[in-house]
Amino acid sequence: MDPTPFIGLSAILFTIGCIGVLVRRNAIVIFMCVELMLNASNLALVTFARVHGNLDGQVAAFFVMVVAAAEVVVGLAIIMTIFRTRRSASVDDASLLKY
Amino acid sequence: MTTLAVSPLLSESVGDFTKPSIEYFDLSPLLIIIGVALAGVIVEAFVPRRLRYVVQTLVAVVGTIAALVMTVFVALGLEPRGDNAGFGAIAAEGAIAVDGPTVFLWGTILVLTLISVFLFAERHLEGGVTAFAGQAAALPGTEAEREASTKGLEHTEVFPLMMFAVAGMLLFPASNDLITMFVALEILSLPLYLLCGLARRRRLLSQEAALKYFMLGAFSSGFFLYGIALVYGYAGSMNLGDIAEAVSGTIGADPLLLGGIGLLAVGLLFKVGAAPFHAWTPDVYQGAPTAVTAFMAACTKVAAFGALLRLFYVGFGAARWDWTPMIWVVAILTMATGCVLALTQSDIKRMLAYSSIAHAGFILTGFVGLNAVATPGTAELTSLQAVLFYLVTYGFMTIGAFAVVTVVRDSSGEATHLSRWSGLGKESPFVAGVFAFFLLGMAGIPLTSGFTGKWAVFTSAWQGGAWPLVVVAALLSAVAAFFYIRVIVLMYFSDPVGEGPTVVMPSVLTTIVIAVGFAATVALGVVPGPVLDLAAHAGQFVR
User: Fold this and answer.
1) I want to staple B176 with a disulfide (CB 3.0 to 4.6 A). Which of A88, B93, B97, B107 is the partner?
2) Which residues of A touch B207 (CB under 8 A)?
3) Pick the CATH number of A4-86 from 1.10.287.3510, 1.10.10.1100, 2.40.110.10, 1.20.1530.20
């Protein structure tokens, strides 16, 4: 199996996620972009597991999914609190702490 | 019929199941802390509200002490590996390394946790309730929030959350494979994100701190994970020992390996708060409840540096020449950012945050130091041992300093603006004196632990050939001394502005924290020998 297309796709997804975090302003969208980065890593892990013919990468992908789910729980709780307080999920509005 | 046809195939593909061996004794400190955290959740569910605070505090304190005692037993039971290769063994089927440095870091983290629990449990300063939000779900400035505060509600969930974070911190520097390290990183971080948003006062700042910490933390763990994927692609294994073998067997630079090292470094340097990944530190340290700031400034840094050292020394030790230049650049940037930006701060917690960034830079200086002692048994310190010692000194000074910040207050809570600290020496010479001592310690004045810590990392870096780094570090230490001493001058030689700051008498809990921090800073400065010996006897990481 030639892993290049899969690794290429995962690198593209990772880059999209990374750029999304940097340019988007809505906390929920930023969070979705982080999830995209995690899933890009999953794709890479599973591809490399196939290349090396062992299961480490596939097991790791499961761990990452669980961790991502836990992160959603914590992250959405924090974003919801901010949204209820400020009526906005824009990260530009949260600017009391600076300098 | 179908089951008969399938089952031989299944048993063939799965193979014989062998029971994994778990070294319960070696892992007991970690398991106790996880148990304490789970017990805390159960207490939260079943114990009546008025008893919860006492029960949760007791569970946390007793559990931490039990874990500490077990750490001592584990340390005494470590087997030498022979041939000067350190002590200890790889436990849990290769996932966790219980060796000298691990046990040393466990002990450090647990002692710092113990005194942080006291800070969390402090109730005198807010008039009978803890410094955490009465009802985190109630919006700031609403009827619900007022009701929660008149009823005297408090979130005792902070104790189990803290214990979960401690479990992650214990696992982080001990993890011997990359996926364990990633899981530990998340167990460490997720409760801390929540704790940051739970301040009773200045809740908007606190929630904003939680949001920023979470966003940037999740972003950096994305990098860390992609780094894991690349290194796994390179080595074909997650295990640090196997990675080390693959690295030493490679000639020339492999892009997968270099990319992986870079991305893993981003994730770890973010956690230690090194420039250019430090942007979250001042905001989060300022916004979070001060008890949480003290806890994470000390313990997270200890755990993250432990993991950084293990990953780079064990996993990527053979690629040292590839990553050393990167650490040089990051160390200089970090020290410069921390020292220079701290000069311009007007908030005491923010200034301490930049000071902690500067300390991360000093520790990184030691990180590129002496690889191994040339002649065993001499007084030379390897960089691992120097960093371990520095982490102890830094942890106690930091918790002590933040504990002092919690007692200097005005009508709106903690008086964190620097102008409110002017004339503190007249208001309370004792508190101002203790704080001045912590600042002198951080500046690295002789006879404080800060001096011996700096001396240890700088000598190890010098002997390792990183003398330009030491010169830069020494110059920037002088810059750092300026902003520490500026605060001392402010406290003693300026007149109070307006009504001036007041020092609220804390309960015995915070007093213990300040006393322990003070005693450790004096003791490690005057007689550093025992702890230095302990660090030196921790030996090397096992592979």
Assistant:
1) B97
2) 78, 81-82, 85
3) 1.10.287.3510
